[in-house]
Design brief:
Required for disulfide bond formation in some periplasmic proteins. Acts by oxidizing the DsbA protein. InterPro entries: DiS_bond_form_DsbB/BdbC (IPR003752), Disulphide_bond_form_DsbB (IPR022920), DsbB (IPR050183), DsbB-like_sf (IPR023380). Pfam families: DsbB. With 170 residues, the chain is mostly helical. The chain has seven helices and two strands, in the order ααααααββα. The protein has a two-stranded antiparallel sheet with strand order 1-2. Strand 1 and strand 2 form a beta hairpin. The radius of gyration is 18 Å and the shape is globular.
């Protein structure tokens, strides 16, 4: 069913979806005062990266392998974001015994080399385990995993499609 849509349409849908989700996150932050934790910020980065790659793919609209490369990169970004969201969901379902709000993302990135900062981000903190807002009983992290799964599904439909043949005018 999804293969009825062109590669450009699928990339455009991914971009619109990702940027819409970023918009919802910003609305929650500004209007509902739901402050993002370090893991939430990393998920936002993943949505921005997937959306940006999708915009590039839609604008470039390469035939054959080029489209599959864009889609594979989007898939890797979506898998990364889904992994972060799944880890945060785990922390929310099974919060740490000792809640300790660690440093924010900006402090960690400015104070530590990336090799030390990333493990600290993925450990999560008290604020990463906290559920500030829900929709249909799902936390923002749960909804992000669903969002990344949608992005992954659309991107994989491009990766797995048959290569388009270049049409030569005679």
């Amino acid at each position: 069913m999804i293969n009825r849509f062109s590669q450009r349409q699928r990339f455009s849908a991914i971009a619109l979806f990702c940027f819409a989700l970023i918009g919802v996150g910003l609305i929650l932050q500004v209007l509902k005062h739901v402050q993002p934790c370090p893991m939430c910020i990393m998920q936002r980065y993943a949505f921005v990266a997937a959306g940006a790659l999708a915009v590039l793919g839609a604008l470039h609209n390469p035939l054959g392998r080029g489209g599959q490369i864009y889609a594979a990169l989007i898939s890797l970004t979506a898998l990364t974001g889904a992994g972060i969201g799944a880890r945060q969901s785990w922390l929310q379902w099974f919060p740490p015994q000792f809640v300790e709000c660690g440093p924010d993302l900006e402090f960690m990135m400015n104070s530590f080399p990336i090799a030390q900062a990333l493990p600290m981000i993925f450990q999560g903190s008290g604020d990463c385990a906290k559920v500030d807002w829900t929709f249909l009983g799902l936390s923002i992290a749960n909804l992000a995993v669903i969002g990344f799964t949608v992005v992954l599904g659309i991107a994989l439909s491009v990766v797995l499609q048959r290569r388009e043949r270049k049409r030569f005018a005679r």
